[in-house]
Design goal:
The protein is α/β, with parallel strands linked by helices and about 220 residues long. The chain has ten helices and seven strands. The protein has a single domain (about 5-220), classed as 3-Layer(aba) Sandwich (Rossmann fold), CATH 3.40.50.1000. Strands 4-3-2-1-5-6-7 form a seven-stranded mixed beta sheet. Strand 3 (about 120-125) and strand 4 (about 135) form a beta hairpin. The chain is globular, with a radius of gyration of 17 Å. It catalyses: 2-hydroxy-5-methylsulfanyl-3-oxopent-1-enyl phosphate + H2O = 1,2-dihydroxy-5-(methylsulfanyl)pent-1-en-3-one + phosphate. Its EC number is 3.1.3.87.
Length: about 220
């Protein structure tokens, strides 16, 4: 049997683990019309992610923190097969790290019971001012100048091991830089798939995490 390098999976949250992007959901529900322009500028990469996300949350009053959290927790839908993927990774001893440009105040409660907080890398919210301010614990390292906010490639470089194969799971612009470091990207969004195709990066499309498990079983895990 040919030995294979162990895997490390880095999985996005908004639009990947959840069926929709929770930041966009929050802005569409509570922010003024100007937010839609900023969202579009981020998606088209005309505005850096860190700048755009920071500006979006500056529209929202800190006093409504509980309401915002409850809205997102009650409306978020977990993509089918995620719980099974967690079990599969535990059985096969594959590290599963959540890397997200989302914010702790809604990611933690949505993922409660699924993933340990220690395995989640995301941005943080400061509610001590009149409007919400975003804190960036995982900004770009010296190898990245894209103002990612939560810089996924920097996290991969920091916690990954040289002997590991990197699997990136995502859907959109926040996953493109990470995809450039991946041995394989699994995409559930047209934006990321189109970018991978344009850049010649190895990728496969999926709709449910059941498909992700099938891909891992078929291509990466020895029988």
């Amino acid at each position: 049997m040919t030995s294979r390098r162990p895997l490390h999976i880095y999985c996005d949250f908004d639009g990947t683990i959840t069926m929709k992007d929770n930041i966009i959901e929050l802005m569409n529900t509570y922010a003024p019309k100007e937010a839609k322009t900023i969202i579009q500028q981020v998606l088209t990469k005309d505005v850096p992610i860190q700048d755009g996300v920071g500006r979006l949350f500056s529209f929202l009053p800190s006093s409504r923190q509980k309401e915002f959290r409850q809205h997102l927790v009650s409306t978020a839908t977990i993509r089918p097969g995620f719980e099974e993927l967690i079990g599969y990774c535990q059985t096969e001893e594959i590290p599963l790290t959540i890397v997200s440009g989302g914010i702790d105040f809604f990611i933690y409660p949505i993922l409660a019971g699924f993933v340990s907080i220690d395995d989640i890398y995301c941005n943080e919210a400061d509610f001590s001012h009149e409007k919400i301010r975003i804190i960036w614990p995982y900004t770009c390292d010296s190898a990245c100048q894209n103002e990612c906010g939560c810089c996924k490639p920097s996290i991969i470089r920091k916690i990954g091991q040289s002997h590991e194969k990197v699997i990136v799971i995502g859907d959109s612009v926040t996953d493109i830089e990470a995809a450039k470091l991946a041995d394989l990207t699994l995409s559930c969004g047209k934006v990321l798939s189109d970018e991978c195709q344009s850049l010649g990066l190895p990728y496969k499309d999926f709709h449910s995490f059941h498909e992700v498990i099938h891909i891992l079983e078929k291509e990466w895990i020895p029988i």
